[in-house]
Amino acid sequence: MTRPAENAAGKRGLGRRQLPRIARARAIWLYVIVLSGAAAGTFVAFVHGTTALVEPHVAWWLLAPLFLVAEACVVHLQFRRSGHSFSLADIPFVFGLLFASGGDFVAAALFGAGVVWAFRRLPLIKLSFNLAQLALAACVAVVILHAVAGDAESLVPRTWIGAYVATLVSGALTILCIAGAIAIADGDMKLGTLRQMFAMDGIVTVTNTSIGIAAALVLATDARALPLLLVPALSAFAIYRAYVSERQRHEKLEFLYEANKTLSRSPEVAEAIEGLLARSLEAFRSEIAEVVLFGSDGPPLRTTHGPGRERVTMQPADPDIAIELGSLVDGNTAVVSLIPPFENDRLRSYFEQRGIRHAMVAMLPGEQRTIGTMMLANRFGLERGYMPDDLRLLEALANNASVALQYDRLEQAVMKLRNLQDQLHHQAYHDPLTDLPNRALFMERVREELAAAHAAVAVLFLDIDDFKIVNDSLGHPVGDALLVSVADRLRACLRPQDMVARLGGDEFAIMLPGVEDMAIDAEHVATRILRAFDRPVRAGEERVSVHLSIGIADTGQSGADADRLIRDADVAMYQAKSAGKGRVGFFDPSMAAAILRRHDMKEELSKALEREQIVVQYQPIVSLVTGRLSAAEALVRWEHPVRGLIPPSEFVPLAEETGLILSLGQHVLKEACQQCRRWHQADSDGDLLRMHANLSAAELRKDTLVAEVAHVLELTEIAPEQLVLEITETQLLDDASHSAARFAELRALGIRIALDDFGTGYSSLSYLHSLPLDALKIAKPFVDALTAGGREAGFVAMIIDLARTLELEVIAEGIETSAQLGALRELGAEFGQGFLLGRPSAAAPGPLQRPSAPAL
Q: Is-contact 366 341, C-beta < 8 A?
């Protein structure tokens, strides 16, 4: 019969679903209470008061010694992390069922087995579990025997069958109780292990029960013949022990064979050791397996499996601990067992830190020196340490491992590991794309130079102008190739003692040590860099014109603080970018506050969209002939939670610098079209209201612009002719021919194009006829000057006449007075927009209301 005295798994399981240790202990105690309650309930309801079936009746105090002797004759069999014991307890179990009352049978079983378990000094929780499940199994056996045998009062076949069924069912119940305890302790229970337990228990139970029934028959007829049954009983016990011994010997040989095969077939030492440790954990039923290798130079290297899923592979180990472990073993004592109390204070502290309760350590011998140690720790199961057989097996394993690993192979592994560590160190301090030093290494070198230098140190902070636009329009692969080419060109501009680094994104930094005069030396380097980028840069298959903004700071202004030095250079770079890009800026303390505010605003702007701080307001566009509402222009605003409403003039240039203008424009376009749809649905019988939305130069250069606009129209379900895209005249001057082609594509969808701020460009009239436009918007400065007299009125009249000739609509912007309105009407302007006709405001539910038109 399987007995659970030592069958719970180790104190720590490795299951993924495992509960914390305290929670597991509580769960097991709860489990014991449930089993105890079930046993007590079964005893009170069905067992108490039952009488013996067969004469002679045996008192509990005569039966208890039989249980005690049977439980002392135990054969231990290990399954993975669980240890199980088989005994001759089925024989007194059958005797008790047949010759004792229910109460005496349960009492004898608990007393006899309990004395043995207590003598073995099992932990309280295991002892309690064993007694609870034994009580339940005994009670269930009594119930089953009486149910099958009925009122039989002698050893008739029905009684035999009842004894067989009762013993087998109680054995199966014991295994299920054990499986439940293992599942709680380990977090899982392997189905294969459960099948092995049932199979072994079935064989043992049938054999022992047969001997028990035969002994009962002898006792019922002639008790003097009982000694004759000692021979088959002891023979069965000897067979169990021989089977287990042979099985374990076979497992050891199989383990050594598989371990040697793993070592010999693994191409790398680290892989070989990992495979060896994985097999050792299961073979020795341990929680931790570890190999420490002693190198000829450098720190020892540790590879560890456990506890749980923890893994460490060829990592530097504490040299002092490695020496202590190595000192435990030598040629005369190749393997040692370590159990508390540990004599070595350093090892005791180390083991306590790692939760090691007991261990065994073996030497990995080499030809001329010890090449390492191997340790197994925290054995699962009954044993509170490792047995002599375990020590011998580990010694054989360590010897085989040493031969298989070979000394030169270890040295090669250590060398490879050192090279790998050098590579990892290089990767940690260098940019993977350009192979330039990264921010961490740059700051470290600047600090070193500041600590040692007698002359000034200058830092140049470089940023690629409009890189975000290039990256988004041409694709990230082209952007990455551009960064690599920029890095190569920067290297060619510097002296050997200078250092260039990539800080991240499109930002680079250069350190110039030993600068005598910043105005001469640093500016000379910066100018040389700007000239180096006069020629386009190759980026994959593309050639891209690149401009840099450079900020310079040195220790004369910023002091000998590395963080402040690079921050001030960053501030100077932003000043240069604000002044027009493609130039050099020098740090001055007076610029710090304004530039830092701009820098902070740039960081906040990147999060404004996701925080829903970017809102859209709408300004009416009115027919100056009829006074009716004709269109609305979508205007972007930033509602900052601290700074309040930030005008577009402050944040739109920042959006253009960072490339956020693309997502900002997409957001405004989508919001405007959705609002246009809502107004149309609210007033479906009215005229179609046009929606004007601004288009940036960056969006116009984007290859996917037409497809994205078409997608928004489809998504919002508005007619293409309702959308008017505006672009300022100055944004067209860089590439008018490309703009004309893109306008044609947009107009092919049915979208209208308006030229905003007309009259502010340098050559408006010369290229106006070549652009596929639908409307002109007269810039506000010309409208402001209409009532002041002079040539502005004639210029506005010329624009209106030219637009009429080209069949273009004219929209006058910035109308703020009745006099301006009257003048525009006299000149024949068709549409107007301005505070007089309606201020920008958030959309209200329902249709956009027509503003009240002023009197002529």
A: no
526: phi then psi, degrees, rounded to nearest 5: -65, -40
pLDDT at residue 856, as a whole number: 41
β strands within 762-828, DSSP E: 775-778, 809-812
* Paired sense of beta strands 359-365 and 335-338, if any: antiparallel
Residues in the chain: 856
Sign, CA dihedral 824-828-833-835, equals: positive
Q: Are 773 and 740 in contact (CB under 8 A)?
A: no
pLDDT value of residue 62: 82
Any idea which of 207-216, 378-387, 536-545 has the lowest mean pLDDT?
378-387
Report d(CA 557, CA 702) in Å as an integer: 42
> Measured between alpha carbons, how far is 765 from 782 in angstroms, rounded to an integer?
16
How many CA atoms within 13 Å lie on the side-chain side of 735? 9
What's the gap between Cα 243 and its chain centre? 49
Tokens read off for 77? 């069999």
Mean pLDDT of the chain: 78
Homologous superfamily in CATH for domain 266-411: GAF domain (3.30.450.40)
Q: Which positions ≥6 away from 604 have C-beta within 8 Å?
A: 640
Residue type, 119: F
C-beta pairs of 344-348 under 8 Å, 24+ apart in sequence? 346/320, 346/321, 347/321
d(CA 391, CA 375): 11
CA separation for the pair 56, 101 (Å, rounded): 11
Q: What's the confidence (pLDDT) of residue 693?
A: 93
- Separation between Cα atoms, residue 148 and residue 166, nearest integer Å: 9
pLDDT, tens only, 632-683:
999 999 888 888 888 887 788 778 877 788 888 999 999 999 999 998 888 7
Q: Which amino acid is at 345?
A: D
Cα distance between residue 141 and residue 830, in whole Å: 105
Q: Which of 392-406, 448-462, 500-514, 838-852 has the highest mean pLDDT?
A: 500-514
512: which residues sit within 8 A by CB, 6+ positions away?
457, 458, 459, 460, 498, 521, 522, 525
The pTM assigned to this predicted structure is 0.40
CB 622 within 8 A of CB 630: yes
- From the centroid of its chain, how far is CA 204? 50
**Residues 762, 768: contact at Cβ < 8 Å?**
no
Which class is domain 608-832?
alpha beta
Phi-psi region of 292 (alpha: psi -120 to 50; beta: other; left: phi over 0): beta
Around Cβ 611, how many Cβ atoms within 10 Å?
10
- Tens of pLDDT, residue by residue over 612-622, are 888 899 999 99
Cα 828 to its chain centre, rounded Å, is: 66
HSE (side-chain half, CA atoms, 13 Å) at 109:
30
- For residue 554, what are its two tokens? 């040195």
Q: Which one-letter DSSP state was computed for residue 268?
A: S
Give, in words, the CATH class of 439-587.
Answer: alpha beta
Nearest to 3 by CA among 130, 122, 97: 130
Neighbours of 112 (CB within 10 A): 25
- For the chain, the domains span 2-250, 266-411, 439-587, 608-832
- The conformational region for residue 682 under phi > 0 = left, psi -120 to 50 = alpha, else beta, is alpha
Nearest by Cα to 393 from 339, 338, 335 = 335
Tell me the C-alpha distance between 210 and 422, whole Å: 71
- Least confident window among 125-139, 147-161, 180-194, 817-831: 180-194
Q: How confident is the model at residue 1 (pLDDT cuts 50, 70, 90)?
A: low
- Contact indicator for 328, 362 with CB cutoff of 8 Å: no
Q: Are 847 and 683 in contact (CB under 8 A)?
A: yes
List phi, psi (to 5°) of 335.
-150, 140
**Helical packing angle, 736-748 and 705-716, nearest 10°:** 30
Share of the chain above pLDDT 70, in %: 76
Query: Alpha-carbon distance 643 to 645, whole Å?
Result: 7
